[in-house]
Design a protein that fits this description.
The chain has 200 residues and is mainly alpha-helical. The chain is built from 8 helices and no strands.
């Protein structure tokens, strides 16, 4: 039994020794074949990466492109023009800003108060004309050149409402004071809606 165990333990060792003994030697370099190499077929050169005429300089240089001048470039950066409605709205907003800036000016307020305290209609219209001259004159002095035309138009509208074209300019107030009013009396307007139970 001990002998059997001993043989079983030595068996792998013995098998490994026999494996070393049976190895085949590798072949060495062939010195005889190195002296006379076999002829190889002729290699064709690889195709060129860049075609031959691509980098050749032309006989005369190509014409230079026409570059725009600086004023032409400036025109390209200008904003597009606004539509007439948008431009009118922008000017109206600027007019409101200027009006708010000068509305509380002491001279302008004094001219308006003087016009409001006028005793006659003719005097009031003359004083309002002076008020508009002063008020719009101050706005025009501060406005940009493109706004001046708009402000002059607004002033023309305001001053244009002051005269009374149907009144004869040569007749003084003192002459018309003695004229009696016409005997016709305007009828009393009837209301469109009369609540129930309310009589005339």
């Amino acid at each position: 039994m001990k002998l059997l165990l001993l043989c079983g333990a030595l068996a792998p060792f013995l098998l490994s020794l026999t494996g070393f003994a049976q190895e085949v030697a590798l072949p060495g370099p062939d010195l005889a074949g190195a002296a006379s190499p076999s002829p190889r077929p002729a290699e064709t050169p690889p195709p060129p990466i860049i075609p031959p005429g691509l980098l050749a300089l032309p006989d005369e240089p190509p014409p230079r492109p026409q570059l725009p001048e600086i004023p032409q470039l400036d025109e390209g950066f200008k904003p597009a023009p606004l539509s007439p409605e948008a431009e009118n709205q922008r000017k109206h907003v600027e007019w409101r800003r200027l009006r708010n800036a000068f509305q509380n000016d002491t001279d302008v307020r004094a001219a308006l108060e003087t016009a409001r305290e006028a005793r006659t209609d003719l005097e009031k219209r003359k004083l309002l004309g002076r008020y508009y001259d002063l008020f719009y004159g101050r706005m025009i002095a501060r406005a940009t050149p493109e706004m001046k035309g708009y402000l002059l138009e607004r002033k023309r509208e305001a001053v244009g409402a002051l005269p009374q074209p149907r009144v004869r300019p040569g007749v003084a107030m003192s002459q018309t004071a003695g004229i009696a009013p016409s005997p016709t009396v305007a009828p009393k307007p009837t209301p469109l809606f009369r609540p129930p139970g309310v009589s005339n």
